[in-house]
């Protein structure tokens, strides 16, 4: 049964939690441009700037939604049965954030898997399918006027969450698998890989959990807005996860900063070449020592009256 608590109350809690995560993303975005703005390639900086813009628009849309229902129409209870455009349009921007971030992760799958076409195709298909369903939901819902009519799109809404959770879990598992295969046997580089694996699992599970929680809420409490309390924060979790990955690069590299160890990049972790061990200097020293002995013996044979010849072994 729908009540003010599980409709507007749930929406308000969702906006508050999303606003907290938005604050985190603002700090992380500032940190990224302050530390890596002059170093990173243009497309990575464009990715961060674009997602931050979409994230800001999404926060404005969900804030407008709650304000419209709770403040603007405070004295008009009948407005609670109507749809406001902002809560429908926010689905599109959540989808755009998911598309960009998951595409970025799909590129990681492409590189770590040594350009495995099949795995990359499956990942891309899940990402594009999720975004396509988000666009379809937005277009169809904008033609509706009441919450009762919106219930007709329940199946499409569930599909968006299922595809989102599937894409997140699939990407996390693939990254963990190939990172595990990249172990080198060197303590510091393996420690870095273990942390990357843990990071990939935690971020993937977090976004997947949010999508699954939204899906379960639609199934169990379909006539309420409990699901939006989770869905409002989904885009923030995507953005913060990719920002955390970008901002932690120097910390991960510091794990292998040792003059007596070998530093590996993510692209070459699985390619260890043992012939690079420094053994050439031993041969050079030996050759020089032999030449000195020959020269010394020659000098002794030439001038036998030299007093220091007897000191040569």
From TrEMBL:
Domain DUF6534 per the UniProt entry, residue ranges: 165-250
Region Disordered, annotated ranges: 294-313
Transmembrane segments: 12-34, 46-71, 83-105, 117-139, 159-178, 198-219, 225-246
Keyword Repeat assigned: no
Keywords attached to this entry: Membrane, Transmembrane, Transmembrane helix
Pfam families to which the protein is assigned, alphabetical: DUF6534
Signal sequence range: none
InterPro entries linked to this entry: DUF6534 (IPR045339)
PANTHER family assigned: CHROMOSOME 1, WHOLE GENOME SHOTGUN SEQUENCE, DUF6534 DOMAIN-CONTAINING PROTEIN
The name this protein goes by in its record: DUF6534 domain-containing protein
Organism: Mycena metata
